[in-house]
Write the structure tokens for this entry.
Amino acid sequence: MEKIYGKRKRRTLTGVNVGDSKDTSELIKYLKNHPKELYTLKPRQLEELIAEILSSYGWQVRLTPASKDGGYDLYAIVNNKTGLSTSWIIECKKYSQ
């Protein structure tokens, strides 16, 4: 597994800084106002965006190494209000317009 999301260095994605929940919500607002920008994201950037969004909701997210094997992209764990942890295997798909 490659990256663990949560606290990490900031970087730029579609002109908006991402790296914490405040910046992720700024990116979401940006994409809401400029939805066609989603089509400019590379598949890996989309995976990173989804990881950022889940992380901003308190999920523990690991991004798998980039490959073209058709496997899963994210491994995520979330704890619900009862303390039960559930694991998710997520495959992100980006289609052209």
The CA atoms of residues 24 and 49 lie 8 Å apart. Strands lie at 3-4, 11-13, 16-18, 60-63, 74-79, 85-90. The first strand starts at residue 3 and ends at 4. The chain has two helices and six strands.
